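agent: user wants the full assembly modeled, not chains individually. Plan: 1) parse entity lines 2) check alphabet per entity 3) run joint structure prediction 4) return tokens. Steps 1-2 passed, two entities, 711 residues total. Proceeding.
--- entities ---
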Amino acid sequence: MRYRSLVALLLFACLTSSGCAGRTTAPATTPAVAVAPAAPTPGRGASLPSGAEVLDRYIEVTGGKASYDKIRTRHATGKLTFSGMGIEGPLSMWQSRPDRLRLEVDLQGLGRTESGSDGEVVWENNFMTGPRVLTGVERAIVMRTSSLHAESNWRDYYNEANCVGSGSVDDRPTYEVVLTPVEGKPVTFHFDQETGLIAKMSMIVESPMGEIPTETFPGDYREVDGILVPFRTKSKVLTMNQIIQFDSVEHNGEIPDERFALPDEIRALTGEP
Amino acid sequence: MNRSAIGPALALMLFSACAGTSSRTPRPLDRQLEQTNLEAFDSVWTTVHDKYWDAEFDGLDWSAVREELRPQAADAGSAAELRGVLGRMLERLGQSHFAILPANVYADVQSEQDHGNGTSGLGLRTHDGEAYVFSVDEESPAAEMEIQTGWRVVSVDGKQLAPVIRRVLDQYGDSTLGPGMASLAAETLLRGKVGNDAVVEFLDGEDVSTFLDVPRSSPTGTTGSIGHLGTMHLDFKSRRMIDVGYIGFNVFIDPPRLMTSFAEAIESHREAKGIVLDLRGNPGGIVGIAMGIGGWLVSEPNQYLGTMSTRDTELRFVLNPRRGAYGGPLAVLVDGRSMSTSEILAAGLQDLGRARVFGSRTAGAALPSVIERLPGGDGFQYAFAHYVSRDGDPLEGRGVIPDVEVPVDRKALLAGQDPVIDAAVAWIRSVQSPEISN
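--- prediction returned ---
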């Protein structure tokens, strides 16, 4: 391969790593097996369900709010792969109610990135660009996407949910629901009309580098403790395709507080002792 | 065969020939060539159509270009003719560094992965169509053989370098890429399998011809592997030149090692009067490393090196100021072999007023681009994003213009001097009361 091919490929690997992968979102606890009856597919001119109806059905088919409410912690391990480039590495994620997060990714040949939230401070320690504290919209996005209850308590995180139309993902009919978060740009969810599951999410990741459009496709749903969890998430970030494949998801295990404690480099930035 | 038989046979042959011309029904061999031509044309056109950063093509009707030129590509009778058609198509974009490289030039500039990773330890640069030894790796067999900087390299393994250099320079014309690619082509000939000697003809300082068997050895430095890109070598150097720190590395790869080494180097030079950051010969690599290095050299937030645009987004290469960033005088060294990420870092620091740049104009190859092989063997180089420096200047085709131009001087090289470093150090020492961040 010519050298500049390397440059080009790694440029985007880097952008992805520093812009998004470091803040890989917790997999949307997507609905799984069709627990609830399938919603009728609207014909031409048929009225659309409301955004709230689609979202509430999603909660129902993925296990129901009662099941979500039982989840206190989550520990997931797996692999992050940049498909086509042969770059991959182990990924570990810890979450705890309400919004504590620790994410670690170690990409072969590129290095380690850690990120997290102790419920107040949202941070990232990138192997290239170093430690930093996220603020503003960036912080809000991580707080929202790392919450264990972002789906079941979606009304706490979004001001509006509007079903704006129908479409298709992989030739399956979908409802397109635009959610307007309390902070940040609207996110479009594409719900499978038959199963009620999320087939696709389109959002703009806001970072110091700029606004990065991303598309995420959850899949490989498996039931864990009454909740359907997508074990595989494919994402398109710029020209890069990344895949997160979990091999293990555990709920309600004990996670010591130290796991969510701020690293020394971050404490140095926040001035905390 | 009697005459009556010859007549119809000739007539049939003539008819066939005419029919092939007038009705454009190609013979099997023509059809094969036409198919190859069209595959190459379609590959180039589609790649630009799908990946060019400006979806509007700045008002150019890209589909009309296809309609106009595709028949000409089909009719091209040779690889050279096809290159002419493809070249005319790419010229319509009005951008540099969209190029069709003839198969032999493509081979000239192939990387070590195609030739083997054995290196002679000699760095070459070209001047007036000739190649000269610009650097000798201290740990290489070439250093033990006392090969000197400034020696002219006439041939490698019997292959004359001058025609290779001329061919590459002719191909790149007035492009800023020419000098860098010419020296790269010359240096490529020195590469090969580890353990295989290169038979090199030198002209020494007295212009006396000398043939030497120069061993090809494993590259110095550490090795790292990234995905399908295979194993690469990072050669990081940090030393003190009395009161001035020197940091240099050959490529922006292996972030864990490079960023750790850079942080340690900054710490070790904290009390230095200034730092020289040598990016000469550095072809670039991971742009995030440039952002990371920049973070060690600025102390104010919200600064960035430049902006890259694709069809979907616009990204600023932001700097995250590190605690303990170095604030003293900074000189960045560049030359025609400084490419891509090297240019982004040098231009960004220059635009920010953070560094003074010394050396010669860089390659002007800052865009993320690739070279792909076309059906038929030629190479197609194209960029898929646009980049402008902090001040809004495109680097592509322009390069970084040093604040202090210091050309390669054979006389100085023969004397064992490095006039670019000398100029940078002299400037650092002239700066009064440098602000040094702790």
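agent: reporting back. Confidence is low (pLDDT under 50) at residues 1-24 of chain B. Chain B touches chain A through 49 residues (CB under 8 Å).
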